[in-house]
Design brief:
The chain is an alpha+beta fold and 178 residues long. It has a single domain (48-174), classed as Nuclear Transport Factor 2, Chain: A (Roll), CATH 3.10.450.50. The protein has helices spanning 2-17, 53-68, 96-107, and strands at residues 48-50, 79-86, 92-94, 110-125, 131-143, 148-159, 165-174. It has a 7-stranded mixed β-sheet, with helices on one face. Strand 6 and strand 7 form a beta hairpin. The radius of gyration is 25 Å and the shape is globular.
């Protein structure tokens, strides 16, 4: 009997020490990242956290897959009517209808496009509350005359409170000849 009692006591102690269940009402503490002094002023924000991945999927489908498939009519579903696009050629396009028309004209210059997405992430500025999607990619385009062009592209999209893209900053660099 004494052995049985000792065994139950030992088992109970071990079970109590290894209990991973949460107690009702207990809260987890979030580890705060200490503030870092920036060597230059940051005019927008230096405080970001990971955002909602659904926005990444929306941008990859809309800005990249629909471009490859030459289907810019889908843009109305994911861009805001007030969208402003700052393109890498220094042009600025304002408004959904203007952006769709601009992209249709640009896409008409290619017989085929194939893109490789190297990285995409959604982030949220914790102090401003804005969601952003960042995309790094390579665009492989075939022009109407059959020549091919390769371009490294980086896009930054802001997502508004309605879940639509309302700003695009686009940067690119033509691939250098080897």
């Amino acid at each position: 009997m004494r052995k049985t009692f000792s065994f139950i006591l030992l088992a109970g102690t071990l079970a109590g020490c290894n209990n991973d269940t949460k107690v009702s009402g207990a809260s987890e503490t979030k580890t705060e990242t200490p503030a870092v002094a920036m060597p230059l002023p940051v005019t927008y924000s230096s405080s970001f956290e990971m955002g909602d991945p659904k926005y990444s999927a929306m941008i990859i489908q809309g800005s990249w897959k629909d471009w490859m498939d030459n289907n810019m009519d889908n843009m109305k579903s994911w861009i805001a009517d007030t969208v402003v696009a700052y393109h890498s050629d220094n042009s600025v396009v304002k408004g959904a209808d203007s952006l769709i028309a601009n992209w249709k004209r640009a896409r008409a210059n290619f017989t085929a496009t194939a893109d490789t997405i190297h990285g995409v992430m959604s982030v949220r500025s914790t102090d401003k509350g804005n969601n952003w999607v960042l995309v790094w990619a390579t665009a492989y385009d075939t022009k109407l005359d059959g020549t091919k062009d390769t371009t490294e592209v980086q896009e930054t999209w802001r997502i508004n409170k309605d879940g639509k893209a309302d700003v695009l900053y686009q940067y690119d660099r033509r691939k250098r000849k080897q």
